[in-house]
Amino acid sequence: MLPGELHEYSAVEVSRHKSADDCWLILGEEGRQKVYDITAFLESHPGGPEILLDLAGQDAHEEFKQVGHSNLAQDMVEQLCIGRLRADGRRKTKRGRVVLPMASNDHQNKGIHESRLVPLMIAFMVCLFAYLIYP
């Protein structure tokens, strides 16, 4: 698989990931749908993990659009993308392990990765609450 090439998952594969320990969603317009692993974000979601768990393993694009997520929220969700939804009849891309941006397990790199995510999540929550309070 070339760098930048996304792994393809079937809807059946995505549907198997619907627990609090392993939670995936499908988002995107028909024909351009992507698969997102939102497991690490469940507890940080401003609306609570229950909303996401109700949609786990499914296409949640309409629900995501209805809420009117901010550009910041849309940028955040893109960081959780692990692949794209394979259209029926298309050849499956060679399966490989998905590696997130943090390539090393050493504590220094982990701290850098986490220190970037926390402010981004806080900003997202502030935007969401502002949207809910001041519609």
Q: What's this entry about, in short?
A:
This protein has helices at 11-15, 49-55, 61-67, 71-78, 107-133; strands spanning 7-9, 18-19, 22-27, 34-37, 81-85.
Which helices and strands, and how do they pair?
Elements: E1 7-9, H1 11-15, E2 18-19, E3 22-27, E4 34-37, H2 49-55, H3 61-67, H4 71-78, E5 81-85, H5 107-133
CA radius of gyration? 16 Å
State the major sheet. 5 strands, mixed
**Could you say what the CATH architecture of one domain is?**
Roll
Overall geometry comes to globular
Instruction: Summarize the helix and strand pattern as letters.
Output: EHEEEHHHEH
In spatial order, strands of the major sheet run 1-5-4-3-2
The low-pLDDT segments are 89-95
Based on helices, strands and strand pairing, what is the structural class? alpha+beta
Oligomer: single chain
Distance between the terminal alpha carbons, to the nearest Å?
Answer: 44 Å
Total of DSSP H or I helical runs spanning 4+ residues: 5
Could you name the CATH topology of one domain? Flavocytochrome B2, Chain A, domain 1
DSSP helix fraction: 40-55%
CATH uppermost class of one domain? Alpha Beta
Mean pLDDT: 80
CATH-level-4 superfamily name of one domain = Cytochrome b5-like heme/steroid binding domain
Range of strand content: 5-15%
Number of strands: 5
InterPro entries: Cyt_B5-like_heme/steroid-bd (IPR001199), Cyt_B5-like_heme/steroid_sf (IPR036400), Cyt_B5_heme-BS (IPR018506), Cytochrome_b5 (IPR050668)
Keywords: Heme, Iron, Membrane, Metal-binding, Transmembrane, Transmembrane helix
Organism: Thraustotheca clavata
GO molecular function: heme binding; metal ion binding
